[in-house]
Amino acid sequence: MTAPLIDPFARAITYLRVSVTDRCDFRCVYCMSENMTFLPKKDLLTLEELDRMCSTFVRMGVEKLRITGGEPLVRRDIMTFFNGMTRHLESGALRELTLTTNGSQLERFADQLFAAGVRRVNVSLDTLDDQKFADITRWGRLPQVLRGIDAAQRAGLRIKINAVALKGFNEEELPRITEWCAERGMDLTWIEVMPMGDIGNENRLGQYWSLKDVRAEYEKHYRVSDLAERTGGPARYVRLEETGQKIGFITPLSHNFCESCNRVRLTCTGELYMCLGQEDMADLRKPLRDHPESEKPLEDAIRAAIGLKPKGHDFDYSRQTVDGRMSRHMSHTGG
Ligand code: SAM
Ligand code: SF4
C-alpha cells in the first residue's frame, strides 16, 4: 500500500468509477444518438490493462469500485475482469465491487457476479410500461430487464433502481414505480437529467423534471422525512414513513455536492476525469502502456492527476462552455 490519494481540498479519493466499454445494447434517448460511432478496439484498455489500472488505484487507497459504461455487461469476457478484482475483496483492500447496468444481461451474469463478490447492483430503469420502455431505450425490451432483475434477486444481489426523472414521461408513474420497488425490497433513486453529449435531434421524450418537484410529488402521497445519510456523492436521501423505503435524489443541476466528493472516473480508454462536470482529464493509458514492467510512472501520473482535482463543477455557472454543458456523452465517463 502506498500513501493514500488526497486531493488539494483535503478530500481522500476512495471511490473509482470505471467505464469498461463505450458500447451499449440500448440507445437511451437522453444518453446516445441512434447512430453512434464507437471507439476503435485498439484505443480501449484491454482486460489485463483494466486490471492493472484498478489494482494500482486499490493499492493507492481506493476502497470502492463501480463498474459502468456504456453497458458493462456487453464487454466481451467481462467476468474475467470481475473475477480478477475478487482478490482485492478477499485481501480486504477493496470494500465494495459493484456495477451500474441497464439490466439486459443480468439473467446471464447474476450468479457469476455474486460468485465474484458483487453484493449490490444499480439497475437503470425509467418506466414499467413496455411501450414507453421501448421508446426511451430505443433498442431495449422491458421483459428482458425484468427477468434480469428477478435473476439478480434470486442470486442474492441487492438492487437499487435508478430512474431518470422526465417530465411528461414517467411523472405519473412515480407511485407505481415506488410501490413496485417497495414490494421487491429495492431502493430507488431519481436522477435529474443532465445536459451531456450530442444525442441527435430526435424528440427528447420528456423534459427536465426538477427533483424538487419530484419530492413535492412524494409529499402528496407519503410522509417524507429527510435522512442525514451521505455517500460522498450527489445523492440525498429521504424515508417514506408509510413504506419505510429509502428514496434517493441525485441533483447535479440544482444542488451542489462537490464539497464531499470522494470519487474520480476512469474511461475505457484510460482517461481519468477528476470531475463529472469538468472537461479536465489525465491520460493514464500512456504511462500504463509505456511501462509494462513498472507501476511507478502510472502511480506518479495518478497522483499528479488527483493534485488537479477541481473544487467543484459548473453545470449551472459556466467555466468552459456557454452554459456549462458537457460535450462528452454520459456513456463515455460512465455516469
Ligand atoms: N448502461 C448502464 C446503465 O444504463 O445503467 C451504465 C451506464 S449509464 C451512462 C449510467 C447512468 O447514467 C444510467 O443510470 C443512466 O440513466 C444515466 N444517464 C445517462 N445519460 C444521462 C443524462 N443525460 N442525464 C442523467 N443521467 C443520465
Ligand atoms: Fe446504454 Fe446506459 Fe446510456 Fe442507456 S443510459 S444508452 S443503457 S449506457
UniProtKB/TrEMBL annotation:
Organism for this UniProt entry: Ruegeria marina
Cofactor: [4Fe-4S] cluster
Keyword rRNA processing tagged: no
The protein's annotated pathway: Cofactor biosynthesis; molybdopterin biosynthesis
UniProt-listed InterPro entries: Aldolase_TIM, Elp3/MiaA/NifB-like_rSAM, MoaA, MoaA-like, MoaA_NifB_PqqE_Fe-S-bd_CS, MoaA_twitch, MoCo_biosynth_MoaA/MoaC, rSAM
PROSITE patterns from the UniProt entry: MOAA_NIFB_PQQE, RADICAL_SAM
Transmembrane segments: none
Enzyme class (EC, first level): lyase
CC cofactor note: Binds 2 [4Fe-4S] clusters. Binds 1 [4Fe-4S] cluster coordinated with 3 cysteines and an exchangeable S-adenosyl-L-methionine and 1 [4Fe-4S] cluster coordinated with 3 cysteines and the GTP-derived substrate.
Residues holding GTP: R17, R66, T100, K160, R263, V264, R265
Residue positions binding [4Fe-4S] cluster 1: C24, C28, C31
GO MF annotation list: 4 iron, 4 sulfur cluster binding; cyclic pyranopterin monophosphate synthase activity; GTP 3',8'-cyclase activity; GTP binding; metal ion binding; S-adenosyl-L-methionine binding
Name of one Pfam family that matches: Mob_synth_C
Protein name: GTP 3',8-cyclase
Catalysis: reaction(s): GTP + AH2 + S-adenosyl-L-methionine = (8S)-3',8-cyclo-7,8-dihydroguanosine 5'-triphosphate + 5'-deoxyadenosine + L-methionine + A + H(+)
Subunit structure: Monomer and homodimer.
